[in-house]
Amino acid sequence: MPPNDVRLRQQLLRRKPVSAFLADAAHGEGEGHESGGLRRTVGTFQLTMIGVGATIGTGIFFTLSTAVPEAGPAVILSFVIGAVTAALTALCYAELTSAVPVSGSSYSYAYATLGELAAWIVGSCLLLEYAVSGAAIAVSWGQYLNDLTQRLFGFTMPAAISAPPGDGGYVNLPGVVLVVLCCLVLMRGSKESALVNTIMVLIKLAVLVLFVVIGVTGFHSANLHPFAPLGFAGISAAASSVFFSFIGLDAVSTAGEEVKNPQKTLPRAVIGALLVVTAFYCVVAFVGVGAQKWTLFNGQDAGLSAILQHVTGETWPGAVLSAGAVISIVSVTLVVIYGQTRILYSMGRDGMLPAVFRKVNPRSGTPVANTLIVGAFIALLAAFVPLDWLANLTSMGTLVAFAVVSVGVIVLRVREPQLKRGFKVPGYPVVPALSVVFCAYLIWNLPADTFLLFAAWLVLALGVYFGYSRKHSRLGRQAAEAGQPEPVLAD
What we know:
This protein is mostly helical. It has helices spanning 4-13, 18-26, 44-55, 59-62, 64-71, 75-99, 105-113, 116-153, 159-162, 173-188, 190-215, 231-243, 250-253, 262-291, 304-312, 316-349, 368-384, 391-415, 430-444, 448-472, 474-481.
């Protein structure tokens, strides 16, 4: 038997072969569980809408109010820089989704390329990203719902039950209701959930098209001068803030075991969602800064609604934009909870978490118990916890996951050059290397307290890994049952 330090290193670096991932996806639970696995019911268009739904959130309705004062009309370039950064990562996602078409997103890719400990850390980052962002999004639903009912009917819910906790609210009931409704839809089945999401995404895209059509009537080229009043520093600052409008693209890769023909569908959906999102962001930004002088954006909380009111002099466009924001939050919350449950499903199947997370209801083909646990946790966060201070922490987790995906492309190319891939990153290895550099740059620019909070989260995650996951890992148990000191590291 090898020395303890060597044995520990083997445990931390043990990798789950790509063939094992594919076998799990093909045979359900991979351990003979009677409920079977997830069902392949989602097509390319619906999967693309999942990516668009998770990415185009309320940010586009309100982000210009904070981004334009930083960059001026050149905020258009800020969106382009954000899109380029997202595109580098999206291409890496496209390759890995086509090579390892399973649930679990970056967690699964890290397990196949970098080893068990790295996979656990990435999985923890994803759980942080999805849970906290899902709760934060749900919290804001009450505010936008109040804005809509005020515009339409002249009444609002009391701040005590609709405002964010710690910001005038005590218990955020609309956020809880939203999470419950999303969980009920998700438990019906993936096909039904994808259909509901597609309808909501098409509605909010239609609202943004309406903004463009009306906003362009007030377009004046003089509003674009000076184009970059705060220079490249302002463009870069705005790019960092708007980049996180693109992070929902990760959600596409969480559906790897529920899409038809995944090796082609997954990369098409990732790239398709990126193109749709980039087009809408850039056009909306262009029309917005062309319809209103850039100096008027500062402190303009109503975002796109205020721009349309400035152009038309009417109040009705505000109601339409508020309705779009309300629907947008529902769509994003639905996809965030969906992605969270599929990551937990993969981690439970690998033995990294208790078996309850991998159990699939035989009638609906969805992880019902898993969905209820996630829904309860996010609902509690939304109801009682002030979440503004966790925004940067969510960004940190997302960027770490993005960087790991890019590294994973390089590692898998070296270790398994003959592996079948439905898509290959063009410009390899420059593109994945640039993706890592861009992610590292954005991480470096996060506040110092974010690094401290992230370190605390990692300490907690490592405590769970060494206390539970390392001992219950399927790879470790299979090796013990076979009488081996550790599983063979090579695929």
